[in-house]
Every structure is written in C-alpha cells, then in structure tokens.
Design brief:
Blueprint: E1 3-4, H1 5-18, H2 24-36, H3 40-45, E2 50-51, H4 53-67, H5 72-76, E3 78-81, E4 84-87, H6 97-112, E5 114-115, E6 118-119, E7 128-132, H7 138-146, E8 151-156, H8 159-171, E9 178-181, E10 197-202, H9 217-222, H10 236-244, E11 249-258, H11 264-273, E12 277-284, E13 290-297
Parallel strand pairs: 7-8, 7-10, 8-9, 10-11
Antiparallel strand pairs: 1-2, 3-4, 5-6, 11-13, 12-13
Helix pairs in contact: 1-2, 1-4, 2-4, 6-7
The structure holds glutamine.
C-alpha cells in the first residue's frame, strides 16, 4: 500500500477523529513529522510525495497508539515549555500551559522583585531556588534558563523523574542545576542543619483521589498517578509543604505553589495556620481561574 503523503495524513486525521481525539488534525500531522523528522514546513514540502509501504505502516502504528489514548507527547517523547524542549515519558507529568503561567510569574519575581507589576520582594535576595516535585524539571530548568544568576535545585521522589529532569538540564545547557532524589524536603535535612532556599516553587500532586478516574483517559491511564494524587482531599502535599517549607526558607524567602482551581481557600488557610507566612496571595491563570498561591516567610520579630 503506497500512498501519497497527503492521503496518508487524511486517513490518519480521520482515524483520530473517529477515535474521539480532540486535536485530531494537529496530532495526525505531528505524528508524521515525528516519524520523518520534519517540521511543519518540511511536511508541506513533502506533501505530494508517494510513501513506501513500511513508512505507511510505521505511521499507522503511531496513529493507533494515539487513537488508543496515549498522549501525543509520550509518543514523540517531547513537550515544549516556555519555548524550550523537554523530554517526557510516562514517569513524568507532561508540562502544562497553566504551569507556564506560574513560571512567568516566578521569572518576573526572581528578576524584578514584582508580581504582575506589583512590588513583592527584593530581586537581589533570590540566590537559591528549589523546584520541589520537579517531574521533568520543566519549572526549574526554565527558571535556570531565564534567570541567569540564581542557583537552581530540582528534586523529586521518583528516581526516573530525577533522571529525566537531569537529562533535560543537560539538553537545555543548564550545567549548574542540581538534581536530588528526595521525598519532599527529606534530602535537605542534614543532621545538624536544614538546607535553606530563597525561593521554593512547586507543582505538587493535587488532584483529589476520587476525581482521578474522571480525568481524560490520556491523563488517568498514562500520566504517573503519583504525580497527580494529592490524597483524599487533594491537599496532602500542601499540608506537608506548609509545615516543612518554613525551615527550608531563608528570612523573607518566598513559596510559590501551583494549585487546583478550587484550592485557594484551603491552601491559603494551611499556610495561615502555620503563622509563619505573610503576604499570602492568589494569582489566576489565563482562563481566569485560581492557579497559584504565593507566600513570604515572615521576618524574625
Ligand atoms: N494540572 C494537572 C492536571 O490537570 C495536575 C497537576 C498536579 O496534580 N500537580 O491534570
């Protein structure tokens, strides 16, 4: 079965559409680009080519995987984030656009001391940054790329995630970023003292356990549950972070958390209850939903 490329892609599009894939046209084209190592311009240039059997077969295998619900990014092994390319695999969450919003806020804060134009902190205070629950390292590596002076550490409980993050650091030319396997702050607790940072950013697992089976099949069947499951009420990690982060922040250090659209009140209360944070604020994502909670460690009285 040799087919012209444009016919092949037409069939791919139809198969993904029939399988209920949202962005069927983009995915059908991207899978071919991935297979033949083309960009979208290259795809157009080869549009009239007649393909060999084996190329058609290889393409339909990829289409089949996507039609069965495997995320495009796990098939191609990459996702763009903040304009950089990140390796992804089923041991890490695929970086989301909502998280880019948080990283944009973080970069503004770290480089200018402002948050969406309002004074929040002193930029020169930020020297050491921790990306806690880093997954692919998308947050920490992007911050290292975009904020020249800060020293970034990325940590995750999953060894596979740390391996992926490390590779992403290397592939993006960030030699100075450190990577640690750590259950939250465990690796940063020495016998005598705790390692402290000026800025801790985290996108921890925050989905309520019973909501997970209702998520899109791409997410619930393919993304790492351990990166999604925030316990019964979705707040397990925020509880632990609220409790432990103060000991790992320098005076006036800042904590920035990605949250679910309905978690602002709960996460804000958890931080308030510690009585260790001030300037607690919530920022919204591009869809206008609550997405980020930020807080500053109180200075000593
Ligand atoms: N935002 C992700 C989702 O919608 C969840 C991320 C997380 O739990 N940290 O699937």
């Amino acid at each position: 079965m040799s087919l012209p490329l444009k016919e092949l892609i037409k069939i791919g599009i139809r198969q993904l559409q029939d399988a209920g894939i949202g962005d069927y046209e983009r995915d059908a084209k991207e899978l071919y680009c991935f297979l033949d190592k083309l960009d979208s311009v290259g795809l157009m240039m080869h549009w009239q080519d007649v393909l060999q059997d084996n190329q058609c077969e290889a393409y339909f295998k990829l289409i089949e995987r996507r039609a069965a619900g495997e995320p495009l990014q796990y098939i191609t092994g990459t996702q763009e984030f903040m304009g950089f390319s990140f390796n992804v695999n089923p041991s890490v969450l695929i970086p989301r656009q909502d998280t880019e919003t948080m990283v944009e806020d973080a970069v503004e804060l770290l480089t200018k001391g402002t948050l969406r134009g309002e004074e929040y902190a002193k930029a020169s205070d930020f020297k050491e940054v921790l990306d806690l629950c880093c997954g692919s390292g998308a947050i920490g590596v992007s911050i290292a790329k975009l904020c020249g002076k800060v020293k970034v550490t990325c940590s995750d409980i999953s060894e596979e995630a740390v391996k992926t993050a490390k590779q992403n650091g290397l592939d993006n030319g960030c030699k100075s970023v450190k990577f640690e396997k750590s259950d939250l702050f465990d690796a940063f607790c020495g016998k005598l003292s705790k390692k402290k940072f000026d800025f801790i950013i985290s996108n921890p697992p925050y989905i309520e356990r019973e909501v997970i089976p209702t998520l899109q099949r791409e997410v619930k069947d393919h993304e790492p549950i351990m990166a999604l499951d925030g316990g019964m009420d979705g707040l397990d990690f925020y509880r632990r972070i609220a409790e432990d982060a103060p000991a790992h922040l320098h005076k006036n250090g800042v904590l920035m958390l990605e949250i679910g659209y309905n978690q602002n009140e709960a996460v804000t209360s958890l931080l308030e209850e510690t009585e260790k944070f001030c300037n607690i604020m919530c920022l919204k994502d591009l869809a206008g939903k609550d997405r980020i909670v930020i807080a500053k460690l109180k200075g000593k009285k």
